[in-house]
């Protein structure tokens, strides 16, 4: 007799984390930028008659009859949301969603932005105020269109002469191009239309009031630019015959100049037609205070519908001896009210999480928000913000995705503030963003007939206080889409 196979059954406990419907709703709302949140709210209002737009009535401003929620936005366990939870003192509690959208004077910000108005169009608007001949105006427009996203003109002037002849039928020369370019360089922001970093800085210095400091800065950038980029302090002092104090004062002021004047308008520079509305408004004041607000200008306030809850109240009072149809109606009404209350709580949780996250970013990158100098950005990753905000890394990732902030210096994607750090042998943490910026500046100002090799770039970076390996320099160069030396001739 053949022995049949025997199956062995075992039991094991396993913890599986699942998200409640309320948690899923909070996560979905958290990922939405402001403009999509507006659409989502209007869609919810259309789908749920228990939810409506409306402001809180004065007699119920202090009404606390709302869901008690934990930090994940969930209703506390064990609560039975009966009619009494919604109807207290003969009215419905309203939920203000714009309490953080007030400036210091208490005025709501009205600032929907769209990059449909690009910085090229802003420059063209300034061009319209110039009294130029039609052909001169067309040349100026072509020069503006030739600027890169940094606001610099990196094209060779000889090439532009050829392009104008080929594509526009305009025959000109480099002298006329330079004359018209000077007109463009007078536009705002200062430094726009510069052909290299040195000219960009000089254009900004020229806008300053005459002073000994201005003369020193012009000498450093105009006569000692190579030494300046290499931080050769002693040689500059000797060449310009200035004191160490004068040098330090000038360099401290020069570091405040913007090497990328086009970026002063933030990421609105883009040439696409995608609408951008900042999710945050960060204002920096002269006394060093930084104010953070959510841009909820077009996000409606929400409350439970009085008419709908009165209908629910009526069905609840008559629940004895109800017909099946009446019981079904009561269930439907309660489900809608529960869903409306849950949506209101989810929107509030979204706002709180966004504010906490953005405040953590401001705290870490405070020097940038005070001065707007990109070189002041510190190395920062999702984990840094998560630890400071006491939130999960996945939450920080959702908040930073597709969100924008308006600052005194332009509009920036939240991802702009994140960058890896490089740790030296001495344990000093350096910003990869800063290293890449210095590397790009070195390549932009190099002698194109004899461009720097990776070994030479490594030595230059070391002399500037960035002791990184040659292979790291090569990696950053590739990430910046900078070809090898022989291809840059």
What does this 3D model show about the protein?
With 489 residues, this protein is an alpha+beta fold. The protein has 4 domains: 234 residues, no CATH class; 73 residues; 63 residues, no CATH class; 67 residues, Arc Repressor Mutant, subunit A (Orthogonal Bundle), CATH 1.10.10. Helices cover 47% and strands 7% of the residues. It contains 20 helices and 9 strands. The strands form 3 sheets. A 4-stranded mixed β-sheet has the order 4-3-6-7, with helices on one face. A 3-stranded antiparallel β-sheet has the order 1-5-2. Strands 8-9 form a two-stranded antiparallel sheet. A hairpin with a 5-residue loop joins strand 3 and strand 4. The longest helix has 41 residues. It is elongated, with a radius of gyration of 30 Å. It starts with 20 loop residues before the first helix and ends in a 10-residue tail after the last helix.
């Amino acid at each position: 007799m053949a022995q049949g196979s025997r199956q062995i059954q075992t039991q094991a406990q396993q913890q599986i984390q699942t998200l409640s419907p309320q948690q899923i709703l909070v996560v979905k709302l958290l990922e939405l930028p402001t403009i999509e949140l507006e659409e989502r709210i209007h869609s919810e209002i259309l789908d749920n008659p228990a939810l409506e737009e409306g402001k809180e009535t004065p007699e119920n401003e202090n009404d606390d009859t709302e869901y008690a929620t934990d930090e994940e936005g969930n209703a506390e366990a064990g609560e039975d949301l009966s009619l009494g939870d919604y109807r207290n003192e003969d009215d419905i509690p309203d939920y203000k969603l714009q309490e953080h959208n007030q400036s210091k004077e208490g005025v709501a910000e009205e600032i929907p932005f769209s990059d449909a108005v690009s910085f090229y169009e802003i420059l063209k608007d300034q061009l319209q105020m110039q009294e130029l001949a039609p052909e001169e105006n067309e040349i100026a427009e072509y020069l503006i269109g030739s600027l890169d996203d940094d606001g610099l003109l990196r094209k060779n002037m000889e090439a532009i002469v050829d392009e104008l002849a080929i594509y526009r039928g305009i025959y000109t020369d480099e002298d006329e191009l330079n004359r018209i370019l000077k007109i463009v360089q007078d536009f705002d922001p200062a430094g726009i239309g510069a052909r290299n970093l040195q000219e960009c800085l000089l254009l900004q210095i020229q806008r300053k009031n005459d002073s000994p400091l201005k003369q020193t800065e012009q000498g450093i950038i105009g006569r000692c630019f190579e030494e300046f980029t290499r931080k050769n302090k002693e040689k500059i002092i000797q060449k310009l015959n200035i004191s160490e104090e004068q040098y330090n004062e000038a360099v401290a002021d020069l570091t405040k100049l913007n090497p990328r004047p086009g970026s002063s308008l933030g990421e609105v520079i883009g040439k696409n037609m995608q609408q951008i509305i900042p999710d945050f408004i960060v204002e920096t004041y002269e006394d060093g205070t930084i104010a953070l607000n959510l841009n909820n200008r077009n996000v409606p306030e929400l409350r439970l519908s009085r008419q709908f809850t009165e209908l629910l109240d009526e069905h609840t009072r008559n629940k004895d001896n109800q017909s099946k149809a009446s019981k079904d109606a009561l269930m439907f009404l309660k489900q809608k009210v529960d869903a409306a209350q849950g949506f209101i709580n989810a929107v509030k949780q979204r706002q709180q999480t966004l504010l906490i996250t953005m405040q953590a970013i401001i705290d870490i990158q405070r020097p940038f928000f005070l001065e707007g100098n990109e070189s002041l950005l510190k190395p920062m990753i999702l984990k840094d913000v998560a630890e400071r905000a006491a939130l999960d890394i996945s939450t920080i990732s959702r908040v930073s995705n597709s969100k924008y902030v308006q600052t005194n210096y332009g509009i920036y994607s939240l991802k702009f503030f994140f960058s890896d750090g490089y740790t030296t042998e001495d344990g000093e943490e350096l910003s990869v963003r800063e290293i890449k910026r210095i590397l790009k500046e070195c390549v932009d100002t190099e002698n194109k007939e004899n461009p720097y090799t990776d070994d030479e770039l490594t030595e230059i970076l070391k002399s500037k206080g960035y002791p990184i390996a040659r292979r790291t320099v090569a990696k950053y160069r590739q990430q910046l889409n900078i070809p090898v030396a022989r291809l840059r001739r």
